[in-house]
Structures are given as structure tokens and as C-alpha cells.
Specification:
CATH architecture: Alpha-Beta Barrel
Bound molecules: ribose-5-phosphate
Strand order of the largest sheet: 1-2-3-6-7-8-9-10
Shape: globular
Oligomer: single chain
CATH topology: TIM Barrel
CATH class: Alpha Beta
Largest sheet: 8 strands, parallel, barrel
């Protein structure tokens, strides 16, 4: 194992050189199997190379969350505006019409609930690959805890899920969860995103932060950003705009959509930034227009 003496952190990110993606529109994944590429193409639109994932898996550790009290009511109106539903199998089966043609990213782990002081202790496998296939998952999401107590177990779970994903052609989203004691800064996200990609994650979810360009450049697979806590709509759109401009391939956004004053308008506006090159200001105007019309 490499020791950490003289193994200083990277500095030369060559931000002037665009990523090489080969003959496939998803970064770093041109040599995957046909089935995996087909699923990735349902996640990342070939026309933009980007994705809008709607995250509504919060209940798996938090129970009933503000904005998600009635999954059977709040999710369906958002379907036209998003590419992927990121959820637990329990939510999908009970509250999402099975005739949806949206891609599904299934939460594949169980983790400590919000009742625990330290939620970064790690969890375990949340479903069988067989059930993921039955549900027709386009991807599986694995929570990881780099630098926290759950690091070892969560990386083990990531590796095993990637093994199964490779076997069945299902890509794996490595999710960077930030332990309580850790800072949400570029230093941490550079480390965590790269570690997940090197362990085989086909895409990585992290948070937006300063120097995001470096994080995106150093990660050999696509990064999508989580929205994090609810912000005013214009600020959330600015975050999405900056993230995409700096190399994110989309968002996996929850609270900033479903807790918005007008969730459907917000989902639509995020899509304008992610897929249509709208600036944050243009997208906010589109949000206001749709909100005021309804
Ligand atoms: C939280 O439990 C999940 O990992 C969410 O999928 C993730 O945090 C994204 O949702 P939000 O945009 O609300 O942070």
C-alpha cells in the first residue's frame, strides 16, 4: 500500500482540457456493456449528456420529511420534468405509477436513522439484485462514509454492489455522505469522489462547493450534485447553474424541488439549466412564469 509520506494532494487539474469521453456520451464509461450503456442513456440524456434526478428517498432515514408527507400526491406531478426517480423500493412500489417511463435509481442500502447521534456509522445492503431487476432499476445508489466510522463497511458494500452491477449491467451511484465531524469543502469532496470512482462507482453524487471544477475534473465518472437544505429558488438555481458550468453532469435534487413553493415549476426550471443551457436568471424567470400561471 502506498504510504502517505510525500504523497501530496494533486494540483494540476488541467482545467483547460475537456474530459475525454470516447464514443459514448457519458464520461469515462465508453467501455461498459451494452446493457449498462442503455441504462446510462436513460439516466444521462444523449442530447445534453446531463440528468435531472429527483431525490425523494429521504424517508429511508428520516421518516416523513417536510414536503414528502404524501408521496402518493407529491411525486406524480413532477414526473414530466425529471429524467430519473431516486427512491427506495418501498416508495416506488406504493406511490409511483408503474407505467412511468422515467429511469429509476434505487436506494440499495439501509443506514442509521436520524434518531442516532452519528448517522455515519454505515449500514448494509438494502435489497437483492434480483429485486432491483424485478423493479427494472436503471441504477443502484450506495451511501458511503469516507473518513467516518462507516467507511470500511460502506466501501465493501459499494464494491460488492459494483460487482453485481457489472454482472447484470446496472450502473451504481456512489453517494458521498458527509459525517458530522467532517467539513464540506473541496479538500474532502476531492478525496471522497475520487475514492468512490476508483472503487468502481459508475457515477458519483456529492455536494457543490468552492473549487468544484477541480473535483469534477479529477473524478473519472460523471458527478451529480445533491441539492442539500432548502434555499430560496433563485439561489438553488444559481447553485445548479454553477455546478453544471463547472463540470457536474446534472443534479440529484430533493428538498429544493419538493419543498419549493411550486415544486413542478422548480423541477422544470432546474431542467432548463441542466439540459437547455439556461442561465440561473433565465431559469428563475421561467420558474416565476410557470408559478404565476398556475
Ligand atoms: C438523503 O437522504 C438522500 O441521500 C438524498 O437523496 C440527497 O440528500 C439529495 O436530496 P437533497 O437535494 O434534499 O439533499
Amino acid at each position: 500500500m502506498a504510504d502517505n509520506v510525500g504523497n501530496s494532494s494533486g494540483k494540476d487539474y488541467r482545467l483547460d482540457v475537456p474530459p475525454k469521453s470516447g464514443d459514448f456520451h457519458v464520461k469515462g464509461l465508453s467501455s461498459c456493456s451494452w446493457g449498462m450503456k442503455n441504462r446510462l442513456s436513460r439516466i444521462f440524456r444523449p442530447s445534453s449528456g446531463n440528468t435531472v434526478m429527483l431525490a425523494f428517498d429521504h424517508g429511508y432515514i428520516m421518516g416523513s420529511t417536510s414536503g414528502l408527507e404524501r408521496l402518493d400526491i407529491v411525486i406524480e406531478p413532477l414526473l414530466p420534468f425529471v429524467d430519473v426517480l431516486m427512491a427506495t423500493r418501498g416508495a416506488l412500489r406504493t406511490c409511483v405509477p408503474p407505467d412511468t417511463n422515467r429511469a429509476l435509481c434505487l436506494r440499495a442500502t439501509h443506514d442509521a436513522s436520524v434518531l442516532f447521534e452519528d448517522m455515519s456509522t454505515g449500514g448494509g445492503a438494502g435489497l437483492d439484485m434480483e429485486d432491483a431487476l424485478r423493479i427494472n432499476a436503471s441504477a443502484l445508489a450506495v451511501q458511503t462514509f469516507i473518513g467516518a466510522q462507516g467507511e470500511r463497511d460502506s466501501l465493501e458494500l459499494l464494491c460488492r454492489t459494483v460487482d453485481l452491477g457489472e454482472r447484470y449491467g446496472i450502473p451504481v451511484l456512489g453517494v458521498v455522505a458527509v459525517g458530522k465531524q467532517l467539513a464540506r469543502n473541496a479538500r474532502y469532496f476531492l478525496l471522497a469522489t475520487r475514492i468512490l470512482a476508483e472503487h468502481g462507482a459508475h457515477m458519483v453524487k456529492t455536494y457543490y462547493c468552492e473549487d468544484f471544477e477541480q473535483i469534477a475534473a479529477a473524478c473519472p465518472v460523471p458527478i451529480v450534485i445533491a441539492g442539500g437544505k432548502k434555499l430560496p429558488e433563485d439561489e438553488a438555481l444559481t447553485m445548479a447553474y454553477r455546478a453544471v458550468r463547472e463540470g457536474a453532469r446534472g443534479v440529484d435534487m430533493g428538498r429544493n424541488i419538493f419543498q419549493s413553493e411550486h415544486p413542478a415549476a422548480m423541477a422544470m426550471a432546474v431542467g432548463k439549466v441542466v439540459h437547455e443551457g439556461f442561465t440561473d436568471r433565465e431559469a428563475y424567470e421561467a420558474y416565476l412564469e410557470m408559478k404565476n400561471r398556475s
